[in-house]
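Exam review. A common question shows you a sequence with its structure tokens and asks you to describe the fold in words. Practice with the pair below. Do the first one on your own.
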Amino acid sequence: MRAPLALAARLMIAALLPQSANAQSAASPAPEPDDPTRPTTYFDLRDLYQDRTTTRKSDKVQTIFRGNGTVGISEDWEFGYRLDLPLVASNAITSTDPGGNYEYGVGRPLVSAYLANIVSDRWAYAFGGQVHGPAASGTEFGSGNWDVRPLFAVRAMLPEISEGSFFVPLFRYAQTFAQSYPNSRPASNLQVSPELKIDLADAWFVTLFPSPDVRWNFGARASGQTGRLFLPFDVSGGRSFGNLLTSLEVSVPVVKDYPVYHLKIEARLCWEL
């Protein structure tokens, strides 16, 4: 459990950072990194731990460098884009690592592009797609697939709960169109995030289902699979400091007929640029 403890420690250190220019910082809007209907330019640093063991040990610790940008098209339309580069430590048992020692490499890069339309102060929607590349350093650091993932999201602001609260269900579908490694299992699954963010006092917030980890597998059977559904209890909480956001996400499966992970912990620092 050293990896999860390290993640929590990093978040605590970030939360104790003093606010610079307190009054001005408090008045600045917080970035919304999980809402594609409001593209934002920011840099995101994430530490992610996943216990993915099924028939044999497979844990991953990832440091993910994420950059997001936006281009204004008109008063109501914006173009958003994103690039992920994960550095991975994995103790998966493989033919080259039968002892299950931690090995280090580059995981699966991701490129995303989408359009967002602001319909009103309450409503907005976004659509686009992602290309998820194969793990650069081998299948012990992620799948060898080239996946395309069309996505759609719609947002409803919920001032009835609190100012800044919103509900934004996101749907995407992962489909493999090419493979760099012949032993990779092709993907074909629906990924859903019924995200509900509730803003609290003093710039704190809590979010239910911040990640599209609800899965329904239509593709090849995974190791240990007994059904098609993966349904986690996924929650995050954090605080914004002006243009800096810190959060900690914890997710555990409720239904894992289609196994994705046994435990996920992710700490995040997000700077709006």
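Now try the second one, then compare your answer with the model answer below.
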Amino acid sequence: MTREIADESLDDATRQMASIIFKNFIINRSKDAKFDNYWINLDSEFKNQIKMAVLATLASPKTLVRNQIANILASIASIEIPRKEWDELIPNLCENSTSDDINIKLASLTTLGYICEELYPEDLNDHLKNNIILALTNNINNDGPIEPTKLSIKALLYSVPYTRPNFQVQQERDFIM
């Protein structure tokens, strides 16, 4: 292996580890009492700067980077969305899932999947749930690239708890199925 390839791999591994540490810190994975509510208590302007910096990296052409950034965003969302903060995140991701830029589309679908995995149905209003379901189902396409379809199906598995009201209406149930 050449030095250049080894350095690139090391950089990716370093980025991945940094992302994992940051995500675990945000959600206080260590359950250390001194870090309880740390994210909540941060200055809102500082939090917004962090969120914008993370979002700016989301559409990376590298799958590993997209996945790690999507994980960070879902961790922040799992704290803020139940508190009715960062209301624009899910609508923006749903809108970006229709992008012609494949990296933006994949990043948005990946993030929506992780958010569905993190949030409880009661954390979202029906409008947001419907937007998520619509974004995911609209990206299941036999004629296009396979990757958005795979990510949408995977995310739909985590969104099943959100679909209960939809399955009570035959037309919506038929559309999802």
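Model answer, second protein: Residues 1-7 have pLDDT under 50 and may be disordered. The chain is about 70% helix and 0% strand. Full marks require stating both points clearly.
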